[in-house]
Amino acid sequence: MDNWREVNELNRREFLRSAGLATAGMALGGSGLLVPRRAAAAGGVREIELVARETRWELAPGKVIKAMAYNGQVPGPTIRLREGERVRITLKNELAEPTTIHWHGVDVPNPMDGVPGITQAPVPPGGKFVYEFEARPAGTRWYHTHFAEHKQMDIGLVAPLIIEPADADPFPYDREYKNNMMGGGMGRMMEGMMGGPGMGGMMGGGMMGMGGQTPAYDTMTINGKAYPATELLHVRKGERVRLRLINASADHTHLIRLAGHRLKVTHTDGNPLVQPVEVDAVPIAPSERYDVLFVADNPGAWFLYCAEPGHPGAGEQVAVVYEGHEGRTPEAPIEGITDLSLWRYGVGRGRDVLHPPSGRERTFDLTLSGGMMGSDVWTINGRRYPNTDPLRLRKGDRVRVRFNNMSMEAHPMHLHGQSFKVLAVNGRRLSQPIVKDSVDVEAHMGSVDIEFTAHNPGDWFFHCHKPMHMEGGMIALAKIA
Q: What is the pLDDT of residue 343?
């Protein structure tokens, strides 16, 4: 593990010296990106091949970068599966450095989880690795590298993974954007690159605060493109339109708004709510996903954009144009959160979709600290991984974890291998807990209480999904025997 950390640190330093961009990714997911499938093999296993390689990628006219990509595209191809379908995915590494794939939000067997030094050896240049698992649970998931993440994720190794439910979707819709919307289809990533010093958090280290260690970048992109290179979303009056939003950012929370419309949140990290929650805008922390609906009831041309100051002008906007209004230019986005109703964990009512517990109850308090005076050390209970204390569990245990954040930055804490309920936020209990696999713990003494059933045996990463914080030590292991 020490070797893995050393390689990660060397890659991160090299990247921060040489690259002029980073992703702060958000995905508008939907149905139609090309899925690299072969015919189902004997036994009904879906065969997919992914090739990681370097490529030149045009963010906007005249702005070309050297990216890392799955199958030559940024973001990578959307993989769409049915709940319970068995899939065999072969990763071929044509990069000049190692890599792996993590199946974020998917209950894969532990050896398939893609964490170097824990569940597998990194896939070397010229090597390959075969991932095989059943597609569960249903919902908006995604896949991304878990090696040198601040470099490899930031420059392209991210993509949506959509698992269609075996039963009917609880929230009907008329359109889930396909190829005619944004070129490659829906299921798409918004990759964001931060523009210039001072364009960080709009709320000073709280929900939107990124602190002083976030690198400065000059471009924000949607689905690998920066406005005006982003492709139009076409809608028809009266349609109920579904969007899947995935924040594949390494650092930044995004505040997603559709001018002239309200958004109805239907799913949290792919898990359905009891009923939709209507808001003006949806803050999405790194690694979170939200499915939203909107009714196309205001004909014209509008921007779907990130309302955080500086982001639209840096490229993070895409035009939504009604049929019959082609050629119209939307009004400029309004930045900031003044007078907006925002999504919050406490306004949603979740469905209990988790495995029922069958064992003992376990309780853990985890204090998140670090980053003082520009330090790159980030700790859990005063310790830096690999010296953090593991959560030692048995299969079937009901596990309650309280996060207390004593640092000046928010931490999106992600659990591999199983999802959890969000029981309380900042001491306020949720009457019907929402279900997630990543939860943002606010800075400056914020707290979150979660509960999960330890149903998936193995050693699982439990970490901040900001790679700089993870690489700085904010990782614990949930060891389920």
A: 98
Superfamily of domain 188-347: Cupredoxins -  blue copper proteins (2.60.40.420)
The encoded tokens of residue 81 equal: 């599966």
pLDDT at residue 111 tops 60: yes
Q: Which CATH class is domain 2-165?
A: mainly beta
Average pLDDT, the chain: 85
Q: 361-480 is classed in which CATH architecture?
A: Sandwich (2.60)
pLDDT at 27: 52
Query: Rounded mean pLDDT of 126-139?
Result: 98
Please report the pLDDT score of residue 374 as a whole number: 87
Domain ranges of the chain: 2-165, 188-347, 361-480
What digits encode the pLDDT tens for the residues 162-189?
999 999 999 999 988 643 222 422 223 3
pLDDT at 334: 95
What is the structure's pLDDT at 191? 33
Mean pLDDT of 263-276: 98
Mapping DSSP onto H, E and C, the string for the chain reads CHHHHHHHHHHHHHHHHHCCCCCCCEEEECCCCCCCEEEEECCCEEEEEEEEEEEEEEEECCEEEEEEEECCECCCCCEEEECCCEEEEEEEECCCCCECCEEECCCCCHHHCCCECCCECCECCCCEEEEEEECCCCEEEEEECCCCHHHHCCCCCEEEEEEECCCCCCCCCCEECCHHHHCCCCCEEECCCCCCCCCCCCCCCCCCCCCCCCCCCCCCCECCECCCCCCCEEECCCCEEEEEEEECCCCCCEEEEECCCCEEEEEECCEEEEEEEEECEEEECCCCEEEEEEECCCCCEEEEEECCCCCCCCCCEEEEEECCCCCCCCCCCCCCCCCCCECCHHHCCECCCCCCCCCCEEEEEEEEEECHHHCCCEEECCECCCCCCCEEECCCCEEEEEEEECCCCCEEEEECCCCEEEEEECCEEEEEEEEECEEEECCCCCEEEEEEECCCCEEEEEEECCHHHHHCCCEEEEEEC
Reading phi first (left if > 0) and then psi (alpha if -120 to 50, else beta), residue 68 is in beta
pTM of the model: 0.87
Let me know if the fold of 188-347 is the same as that of 361-480: yes
